Amino acid sequence: MNTADVRKLKRLAQRLGVRDSDVIRFAVKSMLARLGPLYDAEVRGRNLVPVFVESGAELLRFFDIDAARLEAIINDGVEADRNVDRDDIALLALTSSQEPYAALKLSELNRRERAGDPEQLSQSLRQYLYSKYVYRTTDQPARTGVRLAAASDQQKLVEG
Predict the structure, then answer these.
(1) What is the pLDDT of residues 67-124, one digit of tens each?
(2) What ranges make up the beta strands (E) of the chain?
(3) Which of 13, 76, 96, 116 is buried most deeply by CB count within 10 Å?
(4) What is the C-alpha to C-alpha distance for residues 46 and 132, in angstroms, rounded to an integer?
(5) Do 72 and 45 form a contact (C-beta atoms < 8 A)?
(6) Structure pTM?
(7) What is the DSSP letter of 133?
(8) Which helix (H) or strand (E) holds 40?
C-alpha cells in the first residue's frame, strides 16, 4: 500500500465511523470470499472457472498471471473430464490485457456476434464459460451452442 491508499482507507473509515482496521478486515474478508476456491487445493479444473470469470481480469492483471501460469493453476492434477480447454484459458488471460483480441477470439469460439464493448465482452465471456463448464452435467459433453436465458426470475439452459 502506498500513502494515497492509506489516505483513502482513513477517509473511508472516518466516513463510515469505523476504525481503519475494520476497513482492512472487510477488504481481506471480501477478497477471501471472492477467491475462496483458490485456497482449497482440492478445487481444480472447471470448478475454478467461476473464480476467474468473476475476478479474472482484475486478478490476472494485479498478479501479472499469463496464460501458461493460469493453465497451471486451473488444470494441474485435474482429471480429463474436469479439464478446461487451453483456448478458453487463453481467452480468460486475453481479457485482462487485450480486450479487442479477446472479443474476436470469443466470437470465433462461441460462433455468435462479436462483443463490442468491455461490458458486453464480460457478459458474453461469462455466458460462454458458464454454459460450457458450470451449467452442464458431468456426463454431458461440453457444447458451445448453449446460451443462458432468464425466465420467470430463474435461469435455465436453452439450446441455441
Answers:
(1) 899 999 999 989 988 999 998 888 888 776 555 555 555 555 555 544 455 566 667 7
(2) 146-151, 154-159
(3) 96
(4) 9
(5) no
(6) 0.64
(7) I
(8) none
